[in-house]
Amino acid sequence: NDCLNINEKGHLTIGGCDTVELAKEYGTPLYVLDENTIRTTCRSYVESFKKFYNGNGMPLYASKALSCKELCRIANEEHLGLDVVSGGEIYTAQQAGFPMEKTHFHGNNKTAAEIEFALNAGVGTFVVDNLYELELLNEIAGKLVKKAKISFRIKPGVDAHTHNFIRTGQIDSKFGFALETGEAFEAVKKALEYENVNLAELHCHIGSQIFDIDPFVTAAEIMMDFIGKIKDELGVTISNLNLGGGFGIMYVNSDEPVPYENYMEKVSVAVKAKAAEHNVPVPYIFIEPGRSIVGEAGITLYTVGGIKEIPNIRTYVSVDGGMTDNIRYALYQSDYTVVNASHADKEATQTVTVAGKCCESGDLVQEHTQVAPVTVGDTLAVLSTGAYNYSMASNYNRIPRPAIVMVNNGKSRVIVKRESYEDIVRNDI
Ligand code: LLP
């Protein structure tokens, strides 16, 4: 990871800032994000659209990975659109001054209140999940005298979570319309009948933290076949195709993410071939990366408290955060790389289990992981925590959420303040 280094004190640095100093200055637990990494990744996505689609496409930042005003501002400055999935994410984008026409509103159960709020906020595209939502949206748009631009979330039947992906594995998903059952085609016909919606796009998303290119290519081909069918049977041209996110990142050394340029190239070749085969124009392409934009740009810093050795079993190293700031190990047994940031120059010879501070045995950050020998007061860094950590944080045990600090070439600034105890009781009556 380019933004990480070790300085002359043997401390881990991120974006040119000493992590032990950051821990002192801002307190721990602390999320730290490297601005250069985020912006560089955004730019490469934008560039790849120029290269492979003549600029006829746009990456949308999937803000569920980490939604806050500063990330929305950066996405906008870097010419990305935004994937939002709730009223709260829409509100965040709005408050950041994000151009709302560049937002795509997802979710399998948008409430009437959210739909109304989104229409009034000027959300660009509603990614409709089911027929009930289509009807509701048509009705609310009519009431507000607006026309909603819509997309349909389609289950292409590609399950990318198994290594050898299978084409029927995804019918049992709460998201979207199935192709095999004819449900998706019926939805398209319905949309053409409704007056207050305008069908402009089809969408699919096959999963997250994916390392293979093939399932993405297969999904794109299936979507293009469907666009061909709509053209042939209904005489309607779908001008936009949104292929979702899901590009894997590196959490531990054994992870081998695919260079996304390879992904972009292979998918663009497949899309163009299918467009020619079906005699339809190459659609304007969207992708929705979340994790790959912020994941590796972020680390979490903790201070080591009690260390408990259970003879012949394991050594628990307790830190001042845990499942409240990073629930991913408790939820998915996710792998993470842990570094003793105070002694990053020393060899990782000690095997430890990093435990959080919650009243919950399962509150672990990582089990049996190798770090440089740890003592009380050391700063521990958990790497690749930029995505789905702050955004999935909670106040369990009434623990305030940490601050987020953005670093850039040796400078640091707070972009999200640490919660206070007052914040914790703010809504209590
Ligand atoms: N688009 C749609 C419609 C999605 O559902 C998602 C992620 C994305 C884009 C972004 O995917 P990404 O590029 O970040 O993989 N909480 C889980 C991840 C859930 C992802 C949900 N959808 C985790 O911590 O791993």
Automatic annotation (TrEMBL):
<feature type="modified residue" description="N6-(pyridoxal phosphate)lysine">
    <location>
        <position position="64"/>
    </location>
</feature>
<protein>
    <recommendedName>
        <fullName>Diaminopimelate decarboxylase</fullName>
        <ecNumber>4.1.1.20</ecNumber>
    </recommendedName>
</protein>
<comment type="function">
    <text>Specifically catalyzes the decarboxylation of meso-diaminopimelate (meso-DAP) to L-lysine.</text>
</comment>
<dbReference type="Pfam" id="PF02784">
    <property type="entry name" value="Orn_Arg_deC_N"/>
</dbReference>
<feature type="binding site">
    <location>
        <begin position="288"/>
        <end position="291"/>
    </location>
    <ligand>
        <name>pyridoxal 5'-phosphate</name>
    </ligand>
</feature>
<feature type="binding site">
    <location>
        <position position="332"/>
    </location>
    <ligand>
        <name>substrate</name>
    </ligand>
</feature>
<feature type="domain" description="Orn/DAP/Arg decarboxylase 2 N-terminal">
    <location>
        <begin position="41"/>
        <end position="294"/>
    </location>
</feature>
<keyword id="KW-0456">Lyase</keyword>
<keyword id="KW-0457">Lysine biosynthesis</keyword>
<feature type="binding site">
    <location>
        <position position="388"/>
    </location>
    <ligand>
        <name>pyridoxal 5'-phosphate</name>
    </ligand>
</feature>
<feature type="binding site">
    <location>
        <position position="328"/>
    </location>
    <ligand>
        <name>substrate</name>
    </ligand>
</feature>
<dbReference type="InterPro" id="IPR029066">
    <property type="entry name" value="PLP-binding_barrel"/>
</dbReference>
<feature type="binding site">
    <location>
        <position position="360"/>
    </location>
    <ligand>
        <name>substrate</name>
    </ligand>
</feature>
<dbReference type="InterPro" id="IPR022644">
    <property type="entry name" value="De-COase2_N"/>
</dbReference>
<keyword id="KW-0210">Decarboxylase</keyword>
<dbReference type="InterPro" id="IPR009006">
    <property type="entry name" value="Ala_racemase/Decarboxylase_C"/>
</dbReference>
<comment type="pathway">
    <text>Amino-acid biosynthesis; L-lysine biosynthesis via DAP pathway; L-lysine from DL-2,6-diaminopimelate: step 1/1.</text>
</comment>
<keyword id="KW-0663">Pyridoxal phosphate</keyword>
<dbReference type="GO" id="GO:0008836">
    <property type="term" value="F:diaminopimelate decarboxylase activity"/>
</dbReference>
<feature type="binding site">
    <location>
        <position position="291"/>
    </location>
    <ligand>
        <name>substrate</name>
    </ligand>
</feature>
<comment type="similarity">
    <text>Belongs to the Orn/Lys/Arg decarboxylase class-II family. LysA subfamily.</text>
</comment>
<feature type="binding site">
    <location>
        <position position="388"/>
    </location>
    <ligand>
        <name>substrate</name>
    </ligand>
</feature>
<dbReference type="InterPro" id="IPR002986">
    <property type="entry name" value="DAP_deCOOHase_LysA"/>
</dbReference>
<comment type="subunit">
    <text>Homodimer.</text>
</comment>
<feature type="binding site">
    <location>
        <position position="246"/>
    </location>
    <ligand>
        <name>pyridoxal 5'-phosphate</name>
    </ligand>
</feature>
<keyword id="KW-0028">Amino-acid biosynthesis</keyword>
<dbReference type="InterPro" id="IPR000183">
    <property type="entry name" value="Orn/DAP/Arg_de-COase"/>
</dbReference>
